[in-house]
Amino acid sequence: MSDVLRAEAHEWEQDEAVRDLLKRRPEFLRDDPDLMRTLGVRIDASNVIDFGPAALARFEQAHRQESSVRRHLEAVARANFDAQAQTHEAVIELLGARNHADLAWRLDAVVRAGFGLMGTVLALEGPERTPAGWRPLAESQVDLTLGRGKPMRLGVVPTAHGLFGAAPDEIGSVALIRLSLWEPARTGLLAIAAEDPNDFTPEMGHELLEFLARVVERTAERWPVP
Prior knowledge:
The protein is an alpha+beta fold. 50% of the residues lie in helices and 17% in strands.
């Protein structure tokens, strides 16, 4: 979940806590004249709290905002659940790969069909041999693309478009995840392309992408690179 969504969820939890407090201790509001004046409410002769027009308008606006946040959080939860289910299906498909080329092909197929994205590329730094179906990279190219030592980069990365062999205006955003394979370790890259610039953004959660990358690493290590 992104920081923005976490903040919205935190605010909603705080609102619920205030509501629960007022239900348990109505005198907290009733016995505080300054707070009641600020809220635009008053106590009538029958000891019933009367909300003035301004207070009612604020209450209605807060209720609409709360409902909107709740609907948004529910939609995000459903989307996360769907993404997890699709990722687990992708893992099952990848574990059935027979060799490096088949692994690259299966990964590209599940990303296209399961997630509706443009496709994927598996790449590996040289100078040693690159497996069939994988793209060769120059030494230190992963660091140049991601930043030295960084595990991942999400968003608009024009310098990564060449990995996919697509025209620059066809790719809106990319996900680039560092791979570390075999012993002695070789550095690789899992690259995913999307047409929409908002599919991959720097602030989005990336736990599922990291999980997918670790599955690719463990699966690829079944077969040595001759």
